[in-house]
Amino acid sequence: MAQLLVLSSAPGGSAVLPALELLSHRVRQIPAEPAQLVNAPSADVVFIDARIDLVGAKSLCKILTTTGMEAPLVLVVTEGGLTAVSTDWGVDDVVLVGAGPAEIDARIRLAMGRRSAEQVSSRISTSGITIDESSYSAKVHGKPLDLTYKEFQLLHFFATHPSRVFTREQLLSEVWGYDYFGGTRTVDVHVRRLRAKLGDLEQLIGTVRNVGYRFNVYEDDQPPVPAPST
């Protein structure tokens, strides 16, 4: 049983999808207004009513996607409204207002499954480090790392190219871009800062003498435990 949130500006609180009443999911309907989203209840799937106001529905969809809504968005439209929907709406699925309970239930399951798969695929876990591509964040042994955007990009690049050696020039091109006019010294500075933030996992970014750097991957995906100081 899923928790569903319906956003609708229809007067009188009429049912947006009548077939939902025939399913066992928990349904909460609130006005489709940006101010209502601040205290909106959590949901597994969000349905957006676009039966009447397509322009307002599109605007609401963009607000939800830009503010980081994690639940999949399903647009409810009439058959005529289908012609107005495109990829720039940012929705996960579209359902006709007259859809039956079996179809709606299937779309709910599929939307939740796809979103779960996307969230899993956006995370990289290796050698004690977890990188979340969707939120541009990283953790070491579950503890958040305070990284700048460029430090995150550098760590992400290393982690997605394990064991491969890169010269400073290659890193500068791949992470900073071809149009960056700074010298390779900036790579050394960022590597040094990144190592300092990795703490006891600083050895994950290895130095290859006279060549550059590489991301070390350890057997069983576990970095060696540092020897106790004497």
Automatic annotation (TrEMBL):
SUPFAM superfamilies with a match to the protein in the record: C-terminal effector domain of the bipartite response regulators
Coiled-coil portions: none
GO biological process: regulation of DNA-templated transcription
Gene Ontology MF annotations: phosphorelay response regulator activity; transcription cis-regulatory region binding
Cited InterPro entries: GlnR_N (IPR049170), OmpR/PhoB-type_DNA-bd (IPR001867), Sig_transdc_resp-reg_C-effctor (IPR016032), WalR-like (IPR039420), WH-like_DNA-bd_sf (IPR036388)
GO CC, any one term: cytosol
Entry keyword annotation includes DNA-binding: yes
DNA-binding segment(s): 121-217
Domain OmpR/PhoB-type, chain residue ranges per copy: 121-217
Keywords: Activator, DNA-binding, Phosphoprotein, Transcription, Transcription regulation, Two-component regulatory system
One Pfam match: GlnR_1st
Keyword Chaperone: no
Protein name, UniProt field: DNA-binding response regulator
Taxonomic source organism: Microbacterium enclense
Lineage: Bacteria, Bacillati, Actinomycetota, Actinomycetes, Micrococcales
